[in-house]
Give the backbone structure.
Amino acid sequence: MKPAGSIVFFTVASGAGYGLLFWLGLLGAGGMISGDGILVLTVLGLALVLVTAGLCASLLHLGNAHKAWRALSQWRSSWLSREGVAAVLTYFPAIGSGLCVLQGAYGWAVLLALVAAAGALATVYCTSMIYASLKPIKEWAHPLVPAGYVVLSLFSGAALLATLMALAGEDASVPALQALIFGALGAGLKWQYWRSIDTARPLATLETATGLGRIGTTRPLDPPHTQSNYIMREMGFRVARKHAHSLRRIALVGGLALPALLAACSLLVAGPVAALLLLLATALGLAGLLVERWLMFAEATHTAMIFYRGT
Amino acid sequence: MTCLPDLAPGQKKLGLVIDLDTCVGCQSCATNCKEWNANGMSAPLPDFNAYSAGAEGVWFNRVHSYEAGEGAAGKTVHFPRSCLHCENAACVTVCPTGASYKRAEDGIVLVDADKCIGCQLCAWACAYGAREFDEDEGVMKKCTLCVDRIYNENIPEAQRQPACVNSCPTGARHFGDLGDPTSKVSQLVAERGGFELMPEMDYKPVNRYLPPRKHVVPEHSKPVEDAPTPMDIKSSLLRFMDKVLTR
């Protein structure tokens, strides 16, 4: 599948934003984000900026973005629509909790932040299900895909929160520990996922796609058109195959294992050094997630291409 | 609504039956489809770089050619590919706007361009690659089963069929109600052992394909050299000898 830059950026940016929103609600309710309201508002602001930037980027993928509001209508059947609804609904408690902080109504702020955390998690899950529900793409319709999206969102959110808290001079050990846990979890999950898709059986063959298996082994003879077309460009992308293994290593080691290690180191030190380590971990993590998300598209194969390539 | 309509038993399911035995791969279905639909309800069907290298465009029919089997039992098969108007149409349920829909009355899967936002999720969800994106208008396009022909009272009744069916010079394409077991197309499918494509996807396509007929290879089918007729022998002496020796 052709990686669309807008969607790669969207899922990474809004994934991190929703992850941040999730941990803000959870750790805020646990009383682990102390200090003045400025830190809380900064975290909330960054989360909403990331989420909004991601959602705006996703509109770039549309052929008719001005009609995007229509995408909120079919939540009964469509995961994309559910994602849109969840994203819009999550804004209300998130902004509401910020307003409560400004008003000094901390009890309400915590409650609304918890609701926003639930909304954030639901939105990321809906995003993951858009991919996981597409049966013709075996690399996406995989049980580890939703888990991957959620875990990586929580990893990047925790890394961001830890960085912001450390920069504000707060004790960031709780979110740093979460970043460590979810970074390691994400690395294990992606490793397992890649192993699984490498050995997965094809969903269909040219013999079943054409029904000509009753005659014998089938192979393409003449293509239906001499030039490319939308299907071949969109579903037939295969630039990454050549570099897939090195890109996987970059995403796994540079984007997940190394940030987790840096987060672990930050637990041992304090002050500006910890902030620096966490900042580096976050930067590496987000860059690694861009690679991971790009690969997620580039490595995906579609059954429609069987008609063209025979496999 | 992008939820699929409930199917009653005997529900009308309009679709195509394509005979892989008689299809000669002439591309007339694809060409006539393009001609009709470039002016019909899905118009325009844009072309890009139409007059230069890399010319391509939106087409609803793509005719592949395959080789199946080995040796004398092997066959070259021409294989037209278009929307199969699936009962279990994932392209419809994934649509976030309700632009993609399956008609309850005849099962035709259509796109309402006014509602389509061009997210292309339906093209990703189609296992058969039947949907092609109109990059000019930013909306998805697909086979309409010529919904603007088959019910069109302004054209002669005999022509109220999809353009691809009308134009097929070998009669390899048939159109009708596959929900009615007594219809001509259903009987054809039953007679010839018509099959669905990629049944493992469970999309329950309505269109059916008829397999190539078994090729009968006569025994001792060594090529026989043609004996020359008297007319082939130009020399009168040789002609005379041929006459004498043949006797």
